[in-house]
Design brief:
By secondary structure, the chain is mainly beta. The protein has two helices and 13 strands; from the N terminus they run ββββββββαβββββα. Strands 1, 2, 3, 4, 5, 6, 7, 8, 9, 10, 11, 12 and 13 form a 13-stranded antiparallel β-sheet that branches.
């Protein structure tokens, strides 16, 4: 198979981590950009700052579901982590057959929700640690339902991401910690979100589209139920 037909340098890929030993089922994604391809080996770059590869627990045999766009269609396959190279680069061995598919839009909803988020520049490793600490607090048996500091915000939400307005600047691939109050009697949803795109409205406001890259699968189902009940 000629992977070069579908994968090109600078192309953006979305990697979904495939692990069966997680204590909680969750969706965990990474954005990467292709540096080069030779045979079935991709050299890719993480966009999350210097030495980003050292800030993620890559290990031998870690498997990815890989998706991208090419030739006007969605493309997906699988691959295995091969080795760290340096700084923000690592290699992937492509292992699966190529599948083309029509992307289906997730149901979305325009609404107002209580939102808290942090945009402080942090490494991927630090963001994952902060996410885990928040989850430990939110799901502790002794933890009350805490909704202090949530700001009612106009959003467009789906189980895969969020659109809202924030103060500038907003940079593509920037990581944010987002807490969402669905007002459903359960703890706030906590997710790491990545800014995928931004559009400046004025000097005080930027509309951003965020993709959830670390979120419990249960919380994605909660969002889907919330949307179904509102439409």
């Amino acid at each position: 198979m000629s992977f070069q037909t579908y994968f090109k340098p600078t192309q953006k890929l979305l990697l979904q981590i495939q692990e069966s030993d997680q204590s909680q089922s969750r969706t965990e994604l990474l954005t990467v950009y292709i540096d080069s391809i030779e045979g079935n080996t991709l050299i890719v770059t993480l966009p999350y700052g210097a030495n980003a590869v050292d800030h993620y627990p890559f290990k031998e045999g870690l498997n990815f579901a890989i998706s991208t766009e090419a030739l006007g269609l969605g493309i997906r396959t699988t691959g295995d982590f091969s080795r760290k190279i340096a700084g923000d680069r690592f290699s992937i061995i492509l292992t699966g057959t190529m599948q083309m598919f029509q992307r289906r839009a997730c149901p979305r909803l325009d609404c107002q929700l209580g939102i808290r988020f942090s945009r402080a520049a942090k490494t991927l490793q630090t963001m994952r640690e902060i996410w885990q600490r928040n989850m430990d607090v939110l799901y502790s048996p002794e933890a009350p339902l805490i909704f202090e500091g949530f700001k009612q915000t106009k959003v467009n939400i789906s189980s895969g991401g969020l659109r809202l307005s924030v103060k500038p600047p907003a940079n593509q691939d920037e990581l944010c910690l987002v807490l969402i109050n669905l007002d459903d009697g359960k703890p706030p949803i906590c997710t790491i979100a990545e800014i995928v795109w931004s559009c400046t409205q004025n000097e005080n406001s930027v509309t951003v589209g965020m993709r959830f890259i670390n979120i419990l699968s249960e919380d994605q189902l909660r969002i889907e139920r919330f949307i179904r009940e509102k439409v």
